[in-house]
């Protein structure tokens, strides 16, 4: 999916909501546990209930890897359930040397190899250019670099001064020589909304993937005010607040209700 196609979907749905499919098998409603693939069954109902409000879906790969081979099967089924007009993100946070990164890229971008065909993958940039470039070799695929995350430990390194600027700023500046705004996005946590104005001076045209709205307490209003650009430029992720809005048989309807509330608020900001 190109940037223009993503922006068209945002305008059509009046939404920049990304639903995080962080599906914990231990939190799936009891009545689904009898299904042959409880994770896929849960995800399918979540997707069907929220698809009119969401422009993107982001499976967190760890929740599937933890299930072993059956988890990868659940992931593949889940990807097949996502409508074609929605942007798909493998939240894998991979980062390794070139040849290994090449295999990670094949995992998420080459359906003839793995059966998976995501639009984007999250990548940790710590090992530098040659750990990221293999992902960029796949045409029309996106790299989403970790830039400024919202976890407590992010200050351990991301805020360090390096050559007169913070490390995360250096990551953003340096990585712009690897690809343009049509191939690269950045992760910026919603609880870092106070830094978004400055980040926009560094990358005015790029999309930002912003987790942390909902259960983590990030403000959609602040993220939208300080992070939006002329083509929206935001994918705001909500996971637990949608997935686990209810633990009963009405879980899908409650998920739809939560997604609709976010979409309606986003429509106002757009």
What does the model show?
With 270 residues, the protein is an alpha/beta fold. The chain contains 12 helices and 10 strands. It has helices at residues 3-13, 38-50, 61-65, 69-81, 98-109, 111-114, 129-136, 167-175, 196-202, 220-227, 240-243, 251-269, and strands at 17-21, 56-59, 87-94, 120-123, 142-148, 161-162, 165-166, 184-188, 208-210, 234-238. Helix 2 (38-50) packs parallel to helix 12 (251-269) and helix 10 (220-227) runs parallel beside helix 12 (251-269). The longest helix has 19 residues, at 251-269. It is globular and about 55 Å long.
**Which descriptor suits the 3D outline?**
globular
Biggest sheet architecture: 8 strands, parallel, barrel
User: Could you list the spans in which at least 5 consecutive residues all have pLDDT below 50?
Assistant: none
Number of helices: 12
Radius of gyration: 18 Å
Compute the average pLDDT.
94
> Beta-strand percentage?
15-25%
In spatial order, strands of the major sheet run: 1-2-3-4-5-8-9-10
H/E series, N to C?
HEHEHHEHHEHEEEHEHEHEHH
Taking the alpha carbons of the first and last residues, their distance comes to 21 Å
Instruction: Label the structural class.
Output: alpha/beta
How many beta-strand segments? 10
**Helical content (DSSP H or I, runs of 4+):** 40-55%
């Amino acid at each position: 999916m190109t940037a223009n196609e993503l922006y068209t979907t945002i305008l059509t749905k009046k939404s920049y909501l990304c639903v995080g499919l962080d599906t914990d098998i231990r939190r799936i409603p009891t009545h689904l546990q009898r299904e042959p693939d409880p994770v896929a069954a849960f995800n399918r109902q979540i997707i069907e209930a929220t698809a009119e409000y969401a422009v993107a879906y982001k499976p967190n790969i760890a929740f599937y890897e933890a299930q072993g081979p059956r988890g990868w099967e659940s992931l593949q089924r889940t990807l097949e359930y996502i409508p074609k007009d929605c942007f798909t993100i493998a939240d894998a946070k991979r980062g390794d040397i070139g040849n290994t990164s090449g295999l990670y890229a094949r995992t998420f971008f080459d359906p003839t190899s793995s059966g998976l065909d995501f639009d984007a993958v999250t990548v940790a940039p710590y090992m530098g250019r040659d750990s990221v470039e293999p992902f960029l070799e796949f045409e029309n695929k996106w790299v989403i670099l970790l830039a400024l995350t919202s976890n407590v430990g992010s200050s351990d390194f991301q805020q360090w001064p390096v050559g007169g600027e913070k490390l995360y700023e250096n990551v953003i500046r340096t990585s712009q020589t690897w690809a343009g705004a049509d191939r690269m996005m950045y992760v910026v946590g919603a609880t870092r909304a106070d830094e978004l104005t400055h980040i926009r001076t560094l990358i005015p045209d790029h999309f930002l993937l912003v987790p942390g709205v909902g259960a983590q307490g990030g403000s959609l209003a602040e993220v939208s005010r300080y992070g939006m650009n002329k083509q929206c430029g935001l994918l705001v992720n909500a996971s637990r607040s949608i997935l686990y809005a209810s633990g009963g048989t009405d879980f899908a309807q409650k998920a739809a209700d939560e997604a609709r509330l976010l979409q309606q608020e986003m429509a106002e900001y757009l």
